[in-house]
Amino acid sequence: MEYGLNTSHIALAVRGQDNRIVLRNRLTGHLLLELPALRMLAPVLGGAPVELEPEGVEAAPDRLTLRFKSPQVAEFAVVFRVQGDALLVSSSFTAREACELNRLELYPEGTRVNFYDLVNFRNRHHTANTWPELNFGGKGFETDTYSGDWQFAPHPSLFVLRKNEVHFLFGALSLPQAYGMYIKAAEYAVKEWYLDCGAAGWGQRLAAGEAYESPIFVIALENDATVYSMLDRYTDMLIGQGYIPDPKRKASVDWHTGPLYCTWVDQMYISKAEIPDELNEQGKVTTAAEVLNENFVRRALEVIDKENLPFRTILLDDGWQTTRGQWDPHPERFPDLRALVDDIHRRGMKAIVWWNWAEIFDDAEVDEAHLIAGGKLNKHGSRMRDYSHPRTQKEYLEPLFYRLFSSDEGCFDLDGVKTDFLADKVHADMPVYDPQWRGEENYIYQITRYFYRLMKSIKPDACHIGCAGHPYLAEFMDVNRTYDVTSTNVIEHYNRALMLQHTTPGCPVAFDFFLYEENRERFLKTAAENRWAIEIGNIVADKKDYFSPVEPAGAAYYAALRKYL
Questions:
Q1: Residue 282's pLDDT is what?
Q2: pLDDT tens-digit readout, 11-70
Q3: Which residues, including other chains, have CB under 8 Å from residue 328's CB and lie 6 or more apart?
Q4: What is residue 275's predicted lDDT score, i.e. its pLDDT?
Q5: How far is CA 260 from CA 245, 263, 314, 562, in A?
Q6: Nearest CA to 526 among 496, 564, 556, 478?
Q7: Looking at the domain covering 2-247, what would its CATH class be?
Q8: CATH of domain 259-491+514-557
Q9: CA-based, 20 to 30 A from 526: which of 14, 317, 389, 410?
């Protein structure tokens, strides 16, 4: 017997006689996906896939429920339902005995895929193409949404499959407590497509009799679309169903998107540091951080005054602090940070500092009671604070933010933070105190929400400058920057900006740093034409291009800044 469920674009057929699920394009009749077995959203428990035997299908005009028998779980069901012109799918089961969930098989091996390529919303370096080219044909590809590329973390559990103008979106609406969505495909067939819940020994623990409900995934199709229009459909659905708030309701603060000077590129040039192009190698270089001090900042302020540069904010980048993980002003470089901040405020400017909640250097003095798993090191050999623990929140984060943002005596009266270097830090084998914070996307969402609300409770107009293409974080970032581009290719900034604009609805985008004179005016003009903010990283020193020596910034550069900022 065959059961069907239709949207305006997709025809879903469940074939009971051969245990297949088939998705077709209703406009053309062409195959989209064909699943060889009814194993969609099936769990892997204790390292082994559960055994499933079809029990029956319950059909309604807008819903199909597939029920299964299993010796490992009870009441396993997969539910498809129509939501507007899209399908929603989720699964649920009850654990018969204590176990751990390691994976959720989203599509089983052998699923046939009638698309040319896949878009994964993660960054690609040194090219204007924002995402990698991943082709289903031939030897295929292997990719995931885990944040190992160090940029725009966390990545949403979301893929778009393309065949010319036909776009098929599959993504999580509810936030997964997982460590990335993985897919491996070749010769137009799925080898693996699953949600990673933690390897054996580190999976999600389920007690006997405990019910589990999977994330809710959306399946959407457009026959004449772009990646950006599909992203808009996805974020509109998140907003419409209340998963994320309507960005139109978020109050804007004018100075957040005003011209900003960040000290970082000047720090690189003045220190003559050889900063690697790859971000995952930059964390090892401290030379540029060591040159940042009060005299450095005052020199930059003199240039701003002398050249009449219209900056409204100054951002002290890496180096203002004692060390990463110990977020007090460096006692020698900034002996009186409050006096400097007061001076910046008297000039009518705001002061922001660089902050990385995820990294702790070996020389940082840290209360071990605040660490994840008693100080277990992550894959980069670093300790991490467990921000899910009430003790860390009350004893560490809340006092820290009070000192940073309060105008009270003994505090620094700062105006915000720039977050950075957040990727590939949260692992399943580093269990956090509160299981409700479990998962990479979820943990970064939880900590970002917590520190953002904490910052705003102390200083309501404070600014968080982030770098994440994730709709769940749009509410908790005031500016979303295009991140470190090391070439003179303006289109690299432009395409990153488009991605951020469509993945973080309502969050203003900022072009972030342009290191060289070559193509700089085009960079400034492009940002201005699109009404994107601009963050400038150098006003003291400059380079003509990648191969040129560092030289003092010149009059023509200052004139361009005055023209476009």
A1: 63
A2: 999 987 788 999 999 999 999 999 999 899 999 999 999 999 999 999 999 999 999 999
A3: 321, 322
A4: 67
A5: 28, 10, 6, 13
A6: 564
A7: mainly beta
A8: 3.20.20.80
A9: 317
